[in-house]
Structure formats: C-alpha cells, structure tokens
Write a structure and sequence with these properties.
Ubiquitin-like (UB roll); alpha/beta; homodimer; Nucleotidyltransferase, domain 5; 4 domains; about 500 residues; 6-stranded mixed β-sheet; 22 strands
Amino acid sequence: MWIKTVSLIPPSLQDNTADAERLIKAIKSHLRTNTVDIDLYLLRKLPVLLRKWKYNVRCIVLKDRSRWILSGIINATDTIPIAGVAVDLGTTKVVLRIIDLSTNQILAEHTFDNPQMAIGPDILTRIHYSNQDEGLKKINRLIIDGLNQMIEKLCSSCNIKPDNIYAVSVAGNTAMTHLFMGLNPYWIIREPYIPVVNKPDLIKAQELGINVNPLARVIIFPNVGSYFGGDLIAGIFFSGIDKKEDVSILIDVGTNAEVLLGNKHWLVACAGAAGPALEGSVTRMGMLAGPGAIDRIKFDPVTFKIKVHTIGNKPPRGICGSGLIDLAACFFLYGIIDIRGKFVSSKRSGNRLKDKDGMKYYIVVPASESETGSDLIISQADIDSLIISKAAMYTILETITSSVGMSLKDLSTFYVAGTFGSYINPNSAISIGMLPDLPIDSYKSLGNSSLGGATMAIISNDCLDKIDAIRDKITYLELNVNQEFMNRFSAAKFLPHTDTSLFPSVKPR
Amino acid sequence: MWIKTVSLIPPSLQDNTADAERLIKAIKSHLRTNTVDIDLYLLRKLPVLLRKWKYNVRCIVLKDRSRWILSGIINATDTIPIAGVAVDLGTTKVVLRIIDLSTNQILAEHTFDNPQMAIGPDILTRIHYSNQDEGLKKINRLIIDGLNQMIEKLCSSCNIKPDNIYAVSVAGNTAMTHLFMGLNPYWIIREPYIPVVNKPDLIKAQELGINVNPLARVIIFPNVGSYFGGDLIAGIFFSGIDKKEDVSILIDVGTNAEVLLGNKHWLVACAGAAGPALEGSVTRMGMLAGPGAIDRIKFDPVTFKIKVHTIGNKPPRGICGSGLIDLAACFFLYGIIDIRGKFVSSKRSGNRLKDKDGMKYYIVVPASESETGSDLIISQADIDSLIISKAAMYTILETITSSVGMSLKDLSTFYVAGTFGSYINPNSAISIGMLPDLPIDSYKSLGNSSLGGATMAIISNDCLDKIDAIRDKITYLELNVNQEFMNRFSAAKFLPHTDTSLFPSVKPR
C-alpha cells in the first residue's frame, strides 16, 4: 500500500486537464509509473471531493501485477485511519489482524475457529462437501460471513470503521484459498492435482463479499501447487530466506510437513506426511497447543520423576506436539525407551510403566492430577507413531538437502514456523533425531509466519512483485519414495539415528 | 477484440500448472504480452469449462491500457456468435450497431432518439438537470435503459443474445459520455471547463448497468476537453487522417462546428459556433435531415422554377442544412440574392418573393404542395443567419489552416462528417463561400464517422493504444475572436467572399 499526500495545481483556462488525469498524473510522477487506474466508483465522486478538499488529498494506491490502482482518496487534513487487514486463513484457526497503514502499527488481532469446521475438521471433507449442490456456495459463505463478523468486531474494538480498510491480504493453503475465492477445489485432490489458479490477481473486496471499503482490494497469496500453498509463500516472505546469501531451511509442521530450503539465488520446496503425531491427532492424549496442553516436560535427574508444564498453567488435559517430543526425549535420555523407541522395564520408569493386553503404556499424569480425572497415558503405539513421524521428518530434511548437494550441517539458519515452532524445544527434537544436530542458536522460531507474511504484504508498496518473485523461484521437489528414501527412513527410525555420528551432541546427554 | 482458438496440453503429473495459468500462458505467447488478467467470475467457471471442452477453447481478449483482459471463453467447436456493439451516442440521436466480431460483419443497426431528449433537447438543459437531486442518476438511467432496450431488440432481430456481446464501444461528446458513465458534467460548462475524466479506462458493462455478457467491457472514446469529445476522436480514427502523409481537414457540423487539420505527424483541432443555421434550429422551416426534409434544390435555368427533392420522396415538411445551402447557392447564382445575401426584386423571383412588415421572404414550397398545408418559406432573416454561419465556418477553416502556416488550397482531402456530410452538395457550399474552392473530388463524405470509429474500435485488437495516440497528438487551438478573426469573418460575409479570387470556380457558374 502506497499512501501519500498529493497537492495539485487547481485547473485553469491554461490547463484544462480533467480531474482524474490531473490527480493520476501527480501520482504517476511520484511512483514513476505509466499506469494508475481508477475505479468508476471513485471517478464519480472525484470532482466534488477534489474541489471540497482544495486539491490536497491523501492517495491510497495499491499495485497489481501490471498497474497501480487508486483505491481511495481522503482529505489531506483529515486524520481518518487508513487500515488494512491481514488474514492467516488456516484450516482450523483463522487469525485476523488490523494494521494502521500510516504507522504500520498493529491495532487489533484475533483468532477464531474457521467456521468451515462445522462442515468438517479436515480439508478432504470440505472439498467433498464443496462438490455437492450449492456446497461450494455455502462453504464459501461460511468463511466470508465469519470474516465479516470478525472484521466488524475487531474494527469496533480499535475504533475504526470497516470502511477505513483499504486492503486485505489472505495467506492460506491452496484449498482454503480456493474456498475463500469460491473456486471449486475438486481437482486439487484428484490426479494430477490441479488448482484453478496459481497466482490470483488483486480482487475487489466487494466481489468477494468482504465488507470493507468498496474500493479495497484483496491480495491473495499465490500457490506453487495443490500441496504448496500461499501460507507457505507468506512464511518464506516473512522469514526473508530469499534475501540471504547463506542457505537456510524453513519447516512448517501441520497435518503435512512443508519444507523449504534456499537462499537469495534459489529455493527448493517439498512437502510430506510427517506431522500427524505432532499435531495431536494420533496419540490418545494428543491435543492441539492450547490451555491445559502439556507443552514442556522435564525429568528429575535424581528421582526420575516427571515434571509437566502446561499452557496457561492449567491442570493438564493432554499433550501437544512439543510436549510429546520433550517426553520422548526424556524417555530416551533416561533409558525408559531404547534406541528403537521400545519401553524398557527398569527402576527408572518406576510404577508408571504399565501393561494392558500386551501393550505397554506409561502414565504421564495420574488421574488425581489431571483435569480430565483420568490418567493421561502414552502407549507404545503412540511412541511408535511419533518415531515414524520424526523419522519421516528427518528423512525429508536429508532428502531435500542432499537434492542440492548439501548436507544438513551446511545450514546457517533453521526456521521453524507456526505454533509448533513456538513451543518446540529444539534440544528435545535433536535428542530424538527429528531435527538435525545444529547449534541451538541456529534454530529460530518464526511464530505465525503466515500472518507475518500477510502483514508484510499490505504494508509493502509492491508486494505482488516480491511475492511472485519468491513463488516463481521455488522448485518443487516431488518426494519419490524410492529405495534411497526408504534406506534413509529406516536409518532414521532409531533414536537418535543409526548413524550416531550425525548427532554428536546427543551422546554426552 | 482478439479472438483465437487455443489448444492446451491437458495437465499431467509432470505439468501441474493451474487451469488459469495454463490458459493464460497460451494466450500470452500468442499475444507476446506479459499480462493477461482474468475476472473472478470467469475463474470460477474455468475448471469445469476447460475439462468439458477438452482444453480447446476460443478466447475473447480485450486490451486495456496496461493489460489484456480475458473476457470470455467458448467451446472451440461451438458456433455461438461473438458480437460487439458500437454506439454513436449523439445528443439528439443514438445509433446502435451490432457487429459479428468473428467476421466483422454488421448484423444489425438502429437509430433512436436519445431518451434524454425527455429532459431537454440541448446539452445545457441536461447538465443543469443533472445537478438537481437525483438528477444525474435519473438522466444516466434514461440512456442506460434506452440502450438496454435497444440492444435487446436489435439482438433478437439478428438472432443473437445480449450474452453473446463481449464488447461495447461508445463515441459521444464529452457531456453525453459523462452522463453515460454517471459522471457529473457540472464543471464541463463552467470556467475553466474541466471534464471529470479525459481517458476512461475500460469499464465492465455490468458496472455501467449495460445488460450484455457479464464480462463484457465498455470502451469509451477519450476526449480532449469539454468541447472536443470522443465522437470527434472516433471520427478522426475512422477517417484515417492520422495515418496519411498529406494534410487533410475534417469538419463535423452539429450545434458546433468542429474542425481537425493534420496528418500522421501532427493534428490541430478547434471548435466554434457555426452550425445552428445548418442544423435546422434557426430558420423557421429548418429541420433535421429526415423524411420529408428538402435535402436538394435545383432551379430550372430557363423558367427559374424551383425543384425540390425530399428525403424519402415524401411531401416536403421543411428544409435541412444541405437543402438550405443548395437554396442559397441557387438564389445567389440566379441573382435572387445579391453578394450581401439580400433579396433582389426581379423577374427571376417571380411571384415567390413576398414582403411582410418590411421583411422579405420567399415561398420555397407553396401550401398546396407542402405536407404541412402551409407555405414553406425562407425569410431574409433566415438567409442572414445562414450567411453568418457560413462566414463563421469559412473563417474557422482559414484560421486553423493559417495557424500552421498553410493555405486552404494546400489540403489534399476535405472530409465532411455526419449527416451534414452525407447530404451536403459541396458545389453549393463552395458557391456561397462556405467551404473552400477545392476540386470537387477532394471532398469526401464520411457518413456517421463517430459510429464508424466506434465500430473500428471493437474490431481492432488494441484500439485504446491507437485512439490514445490520436488523442494525445491533438493540439487544441483556442479560437481567439481577435481583430484578425473579425477581419476574416467580415470578408467572408459576402457571397462567395470579398476576395473572389479565392473562389475562381464560382464566377463561371
């Protein structure tokens, strides 16, 4: 968004240039561009506004791929805020942030459940639903209405009007983005997995049914394909990997693990199933990071007693990905599980390790201390599942790095995006061989990088150029599950790894 | 409009480009451009259509100033017509023409009264009306509704649907164009005479309320200023003056006379009041060219009897501009008026010349032969008014030509636009010294050049580039009514002129 006060020389008999061209000429000379378009809606109001405001106006201009668009003018002496909305359009959660575009300050932020959860928690259910009669319309309406309600609430919380919002940027995965635009995602999940669009143009908020300023434009992050969406492009944009000379890696762990490797010259991406155990959807006590979720675990080195920390310091209700990784790391380092991840009966596990129908399980929190009133347990099956996830993750990291002839040790920075990145203890992840044994300070948590990228997009003058440059630079690596991949995977199924020389820091622990 | 069948290679696992980008890439390579935009409306339908039509589609693409816009796709094997509508948006009459854009054939054409005539016949009344409460909305609605009705009728007359229309081009004067777009023309008629816009962008027909294909775009001819409108730019475009090495002149006579002089290197334009007597609004028997209007007059060289020809060979109702010029020429050549244009009592005028209250008048058609049942007469005042008009016209022509250091004799072609041009007899106009004494074959009638230009615009691939080039090349000459102008004007008030050497061909007649 480009915002600037422009002072025009009023028309005279010597200069009878029309109102629109007079204003646009001034903007063009500031922007050094040939094309600034103006909507009919604004054109109709222009002559009165220019004269009322004595030819001194603040101009709000947004750049599409081929042209700048004048999205609004306000009186130069007026202090009306000019705001933008950044949206992280998650499958489960949607995060909305209002930004004052004159100061780039965050005015308000709110997270809410994606209203499409009512159709189904997972993407597949929603895609199938979209293909029913009116399904697409209904599911599109759910998210649009949800956003409108939330925008209105957030606006009033920070004392602005939806009409003060001139830009909306949306970062989401390919399916969520399609549903948001009312595009049928049917072909996204069917071979050969084709999105309707990779790089949407700016769309008028009005056309999408978003109730903000009628001239506001919506920036929708482009995707690389059905399985590498705009949320990840936003994350890369936010991380700045594409600006650095050194090679960094970025991982975003959700239902899938998406990985990006590169620097200012090149970017390689891949995605693979590595996350389920980490997102709380496999283990019996698994849950998403939220109040009452065990996010950190320590063992007392003397008593071997377990110490849990929960989000919000609430009584424990379950365990989230980072807690599970901590737990597995403690189990391994204290010999409660062996290098194959199997429970070992020993003094250290005390009376916490049980057996039921031949399946071993471990009581992490006894019923008396849990919020649910039942034991919170981890079974051998849960550990097995985690080990598969961690092995898959490490294999993907190894595969993508070796695809460019590099080794994991060559990475300068290891970015971890999302909630997972905010809670994970890299030491624990290294201990179980899920993440490579890099110096701890090379691990950087990005937080909600999708929202971060969406925020940068509305602040930036020419975000589409920058975002397109990132998108177009990405080489997508199809993960072939061939013999080499399987060999790597098998080697990674041990704790921390068959080749312990890869994890020199784990041994001393 | 660019129309082409494009055959795409269907997507595969090896090429997972999205539907939109797959199609746009093909169009881009045909057009050698970087930017082809696609509307959300079409994007939503695209995946189903591409698959249904097996990736063979005819694409309809229109060029805006900075980008091409995909306005529609149809099945490559389908024979649905792809049509356009050209509109000559006159203050009095509107002419609509439907063109098959695959063959460039005219499918239908119709002229109707501008429905804004209900507000007032002249531009000023309408501009004042627009400034009242809701006035602009109402007057805009009148023309939009009128066009919609006529488009529907014309479509059914040639067996197409309004949905088959993908482009509309509109040529009109600056005020009519403003009212068409719903822009307030208030400032057009007030010093310093500023239009709201000079060069409108392509506008979606839907936004303007025009009921054609929802993706159709409207091309609106740009203006040079409040008094040199898009109708004239369309006329220049149609004439091709701007493509020739030789210098030509173009005149368009309506309420004002607009004049353009130039060649491929430069264009000079001016406008002045010269027309009233020629457009039927001053003389008592004056009327617009139409059924029953006397458009041609001859005198029998022996009996001096008058022979009138009417449009449609209907009984005479009045006289239009070309008839009036013929009449004045005959009067002058047969000595019924003198070189000052005053009636001379002589045998030749017979009993047709009368006198009432000291004002002489001449019975052109006796009551017995007229359609109205009254004498059709021309008074001395009518002749005087014609002489002022013709003198003004000649003075404007002399002034604009001498402004570039040329003489009227240097002109290779003299284009006469509009109805006036279609009916006028250049010999008569030369006889009274209204038009310069050039060889008769240098006079070319352009017919409805505004409609002609509008037609060329929708047929052309990149009309805005061409039209902008014309518009931007025009230097507008403000006619200063100074001593030199008045001297020229006084000299031109004689028949044919004070300086008879300027009209060598008139003497022998």
